C-alpha cells in the first residue's frame, strides 16, 4: 500500500526498513501511498476531528498508541482581524493536544510505528516540545526514551514534562543543530528509533493538521495557512497531506503555505525572500522563541518546495513582534500560546500591513504550543502581581475603584 521514496533521486525503500535518508544520495524520504487503492470520500470522513479519523491516509496497521490527539479548536480571531482589517482570520490552537503541542500528532504515529517495526527504544533531539511529546508517548507505549536538549535554551515547562514522563534527559553543551547531529549518530549506531522530523513516518501524523483545517471548513480550504517554522517539518507535512486530499478529489486547491521565522533564526525565510535555490545555514541562531531556534532545518528542501509550489511566502518577525503578538492573542482573544506559536500571528499582522495578505483572504494561523510551556518568558514580560495588605480598602485603593463609578472598562 505504501513505500518510502527519496525526494531527490526517486530511490524506493520498503515500508518496513528503518531508514531516515536515502542511502544513495542522502536525500529526504517521503511516505508514498498507492493512491489508486485508497477509496476515501467526504462521506467517509463525517464526524468529529481527530488524528486517527484519517487512518486511511496513515501508514499504520496495528492498534495505535494514543492519548486522543488532534481535534484541536479553530478560533475566529475577531478582534485581531478588526485591527488589521480582515474578517476571516483564524487560529488553530495546537496547544490543546495532550502534551500541549502539535508534536503529539507526529508522536502518536511515530511511536506506534516504532512498535510496528519492532524497535525497543526511541530518541530525539529537541528544542523542547518534541522531547515532551516523545516522553509522553514513550511512557504510554512502555518503552525507554532518550532526549537530547540544547543546554539552557529549553523552556521550563517542556523540560518538566520530559522529566516527569520518565525520559532520559541529556543536556548538550551546544545548540539544537548539534544535538540533532549527535542523536542521529546515536540512533543509527545503537538501533534506537529516531523520532525527529527527518523521520518520514512522524510527519505523516503531522499532516493531519491540514486534514482537520480542510475538514473544519467543510472541505473549502482557506486561502492561506501560516505557520511558525523551525526544522520545517510541519509546513512540509501539512502541504503533503493537502496534496493527498487533492489527489483523492476531496479538496480542489491548495492554500498558500506561509512560513514565519524569527529574525535571528531565519534560513528559510531568507532563501524565499532572496529567491535562492537552497538555504544558507545560520551558524548562531538566536530568538526568544526557543522552539524555533534552529539554524539548519533538516526539512529545508521540502519546505522551500511546499512554499513555492503553493504560491505561498515566508517572512521574518522580530522577537518584539513575537512577544507583542503573544500578548495580543492572550488578552484580546483569550488564546494562550507560547512565543514560537505567536510567530504565525505576528507574521499575519506584518504580511497584512505589507499588503501581501489581502483583506478578503481566509487565513488560518497554526498556533503550535500552549502558553504554559514557557511561563518564564511570560513572567518577564508582564507586570508583577500587586502586593497589598489583606483588607478590602487596600485592594480598592490599588485598583483605583471609586464605589460610585465602579471599575474602569478594559
Ligand atoms: C511550538 C513550536 N512551534 C513551531 C515549531 C517548529 O516546527 P517545525 O520544526 O516543524 O518547523 C516547533 C518545533 O519544535 C515548536 O515546538
Ligand atoms: Zn536519493
How is this structure best described in words?
This protein is an alpha/beta fold. Strands 4-5-13-10-11-12 form a six-stranded mixed sheet, sandwiched between helices. Strands 8-7-6-9 form a four-stranded parallel sheet, with helices on both faces. Strands 2-1-3 form a three-stranded antiparallel sheet. The model has no long low-confidence stretch (mean pLDDT 97).
Which assembly state applies to the chains in this document? single chain
Main sheet: strand order: 4-5-13-10-11-12
Number of strands: 13
Order of helices and strands: EEEEHEHEHEHEHEHHEHEHHEHHEHH
Separate helix tally: 14
Helix content: 25-40%
Main sheet properties? 6 strands, mixed
Q: What's this entry about, in short?
A:
37% of the residues lie in helices and 15% in strands. With 410 residues, the chain is of the alpha/beta class.
Give the topology:
Elements lengths: L1 E5 L5 E2 L15 E5 L40 E3 L1 H6 L4 E6 L9 H14 L5 E4 L3 H13 L3 E6 L5 H9 L3 E5 L3 H15 L2 E2 L5 H7 L1 H9 L7 E5 L4 H15 L8 E7 L4 H8 L25 H10 L3 E5 L1 H15 L5 H15 L8 E6 L7 H7 L10 H8 L11
Parallel strand pairs: 5-13, 6-7, 6-9, 7-8, 10-11, 10-13, 11-12
Antiparallel strand pairs: 1-2, 1-3, 4-5
Helix pairs in contact: 2-3, 2-6, 3-4, 6-8, 7-8, 8-10, 11-12
The structure holds pyridoxal-5'-phosphate (PLP) and zinc ion (ZN).
Amino acid at each position: 500500500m505504501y513505500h518510502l521514496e527519496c525526494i531527490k533521486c526517486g530511490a524506493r525503500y520498503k515500508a518496513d526498513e528503518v531508514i531516515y535518508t536515502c542511502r544513495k544520495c542522502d536525500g529526504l524520504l517521503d511516505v508514498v501511498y498507492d493512491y489508486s487503492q485508497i477509496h476515501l470520500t467526504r462521506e467517509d470522513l463525517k464526524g468529529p476531528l481527530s488524528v486517527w479519523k484519517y487512518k486511511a491516509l496513515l501508514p499504520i496497521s496495528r492498534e495505535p498508541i494514543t492519548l486522543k490527539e488532534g481535534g484541536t479548536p479553530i478560533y475566529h480571531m475577531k478582534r485581531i482581524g478588526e485591527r488589521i482589517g480582515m474578517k476571516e482570520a483564524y487560529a488553530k490552537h495546537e496547544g490543546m493536544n495532550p502534551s500541549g503541542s502539535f508534536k503529539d500528532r507526529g508522536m502518536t504515529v511515530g511511536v506506534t510505528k516504532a512498535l510496528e517495526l519492532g524497535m525497543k527504544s526511541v530518541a530525539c533531539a529537541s528544542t523542547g516540545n518534541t522531547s515532551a511529546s516523545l516522553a509522553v508517548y514513550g511512557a504510554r507505549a512502555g518503552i525507554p526514551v532518550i532526549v537530547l536538549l540544547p543546554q539552557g535554551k529549553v523552556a521550563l515547562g517542556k523540560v518538566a514534562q520530559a522529566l516527569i514522563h520518565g525520559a532520559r534527559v541529556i543536556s548538550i553543551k551546544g545548540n539544537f543543530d548539534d544535538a540533532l547531529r549527535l542523536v542521529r549518530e546515536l540512533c543509527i549506531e545503537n538501533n534506537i528509533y529516531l523520532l525527529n522530523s527527518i523521520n518520514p513516518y512522524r510527519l505523516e501524523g503531522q499532516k493531519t493538521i491540514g486534514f482537520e483545517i480542510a475538514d473544519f471548513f467543510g472541505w473549502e480550504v482557506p486561502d492561506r495557512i501560516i505557520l511558525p517554522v523551525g526544522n520545517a517539518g510541519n509546513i512540509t507535512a501539512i502541504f503533503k497531506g493537502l496534496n493527498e486530499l487533492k489527489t483523492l478529489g476531496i479538496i480542489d486547491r491548495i492554500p498558500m503555505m506561509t512560513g514565519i521565522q524569527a529574525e535571528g533564526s531565519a534560513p528559510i525565510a531568507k532563501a524565499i525572500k532572496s529567491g535562492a535555490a537552497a538555504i544558507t545555514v545560520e551558524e548562531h541562531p538566536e530568538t526568544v522563541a526557543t522552539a524555533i531556534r534552529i539554524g539548519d532545518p533538516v526539512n529545508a528542501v521540502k519546505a522551500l518546495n511546499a512554499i513555492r509550489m503553493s504560491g505561498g511566502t515566508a517572512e521574518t518577525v522580530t522577537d518584539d513582534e513575537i512577544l507583542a503578538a503573544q500578548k495580543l492573542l492572550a488578552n484580546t482573544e483569550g488564546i494562550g500560546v507560547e512565543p514560537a506559536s505567536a510567530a504565525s500571528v505576528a507574521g499575519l499582522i506584518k504580511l497584512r500591513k505589507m499588503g501581501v495578505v489581502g483583506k478578503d483572504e481566509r487565513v488560518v494561523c497554526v498556533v503550535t504550543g500552549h502558553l504554559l510551556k514557557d511561563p518564564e518568558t511570560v513572567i518577564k514580560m508582564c507586570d508583577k502581581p500587586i502586593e497589598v495588605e489583606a483588607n478590602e480598602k487596600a485592594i480598592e485603593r490599588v485598583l483605583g475603584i471609586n464605589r460610585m463609578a465602579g471599575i474602569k472598562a478594559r
